[in-house]
Every structure is written in structure tokens, then in C-alpha cells.
Amino acid sequence: MPLFQIQVERQYLASITTNLTPIYEKYLHFFGNPAIQANILEINEEQFQGEFTRALFVDILGYTAKPQPDFNLIREKKNETDSKSADAAILINNLTVGVIELKDHKTQDLKKIESQAFGYKNNHKNCRYVVTSNFEKLRFYIENAVDFIDFDLFHLTFEDFKRLWLCLSYESIAKDLPLEIKKQSLSSEDVITKQL
Fold first, then answer.
1. Could you give the CA distance from residue 52 to residue 102 in angstroms, rounded to a whole number?
2. Helix, strand or coil for residue 77?
3. Phi and psi of 129, rounded to 5°?
4. Phi, psi angles (nearest 5°) of residue 121
5. Which pLDDT tens digit goes with each residue over 52-95?
6. pTM for this model (two decimals)
């Protein structure tokens, strides 16, 4: 089953009030630029982690990175139970609600870093969102590793970008919209199943 039921997702996509056109243009200027894409494919994880986090999560998706006041995005977030740390974490009311695990382009199969990312998630009691990426592809999970959404960051159409915004913008995560959409999708599936 997909992460979201199509009809439920469409309703939420239609309810986006933010003007995404200038944000999408900014997105294309960076992630859609063939010269930047070529450099991303050659750069290693450590060299690009910070820039990637800033370019996507701060400049595009509306997060505020530490050390800015009222930050909601932090790099190298230590687990609550041990000294291991995710590459970045999303905070809401100072609680870790999402972890981000990044690898460079040599990691083609994002499934290979799933257990590492969920190891971080499982060590933050309020965490429900997981993001993995190799800087070209991005995978988004809610609560478990069974269902997810893949995004090709180098080739997002405007509709794909709206979906990325719905899943990962600070505006959406702060309202817990992705979890709400997932719950409504499951309820909708139950209704359809009962009708059959």
C-alpha cells in the first residue's frame, strides 16, 4: 500500500495556501541546475551534508537551523539513549520528531541505510519521521519502514514539489500533517474495504 491514499492526498495538496511558485523556482535554480547536479554526483558525504541540509531544508522547506534563535533543525543530533547521532534532526517544541540520514551518491540503494536511520528514530521517543537521501534521491517515511515516498530531487515536476512540500516543509511537519494524512488514508482504506 502507498504511504497515502490518493484521494486523501489530493485533498491536502489542494489545501496548500502557500504560493509555491517562487519557492519551486528557487528549488530549480539549485537542484535543477545541471552543473550543480554534476558536482553533487562527485562530492562526498562530509563535504556536502551541511550545504545540502541548508539548501533543501532551510532555503527551500522553511526550517531554521541552529545556531539561529528558535531553531528547529539541528545537525549531528545525538540519540537520547547513546552517543550515536543522526546527520540532522527536525525539532518541534524542542522534541526530535524527525531524523535525517545522508549518504553520498555512491549509495544508490537507499534501502541500505534504512536500518541505520531507523536506529536513530528508535532512540528518540517522540520521533515519527525519517528521511534518507543520497543528495539526488530522497526517501520519506512515517513511523515505520514499510511504506515510504521516494523523490528524485534532480527531476521534480511542480506537482512532485508540491508533494515534497506537503510531506517535509516545516509548515507541514509543525502541524503533523504527514501523520494526519497517513491516519486519514488508513481510515479511508478501512471504509473502502468494508464497502467491498
1. 9
2. strand
3. -115, 140
4. -55, -45
5. 999 999 999 999 999 999 999 999 888 888 878 889 999 999 99
6. 0.91
Mean pLDDT of 1-20: 90
Mean pLDDT score, 109-133: 92
Altogether, the residues listed in the chain come to a count of: 196
Count of Cβ atoms closer than 10 Å to residue 34 Cβ: 8
How far apart, in whole angstroms, are the C-alpha atoms of residue 136 and residue 84? Answer: 25
| Four-point Cα dihedral 180, 19, 170, 135, nearest 10 | 110
What single DSSP character describes residue 65?
B
Grid cell listed for 9: 492526498
Cell triple for 55: 539548501
**Whether 88 contacts 73, CB under 8 Å:** yes
pLDDT in tens, 151-175: 999 999 999 999 999 999 999 999 9
Q: Residue 155 is placed in which grid cell?
A: 527531476
Query: What is the structure's pLDDT at 78?
Result: 83
Q: Phi and psi for 81 in degrees, rounded to 5?
A: -110, -15
In our burial notation (b when 16+ CB lie closer than 10 A, e otherwise), range 94-127 reads: eebbbbbbbbbbebeebeebbeebbebbebbeeb
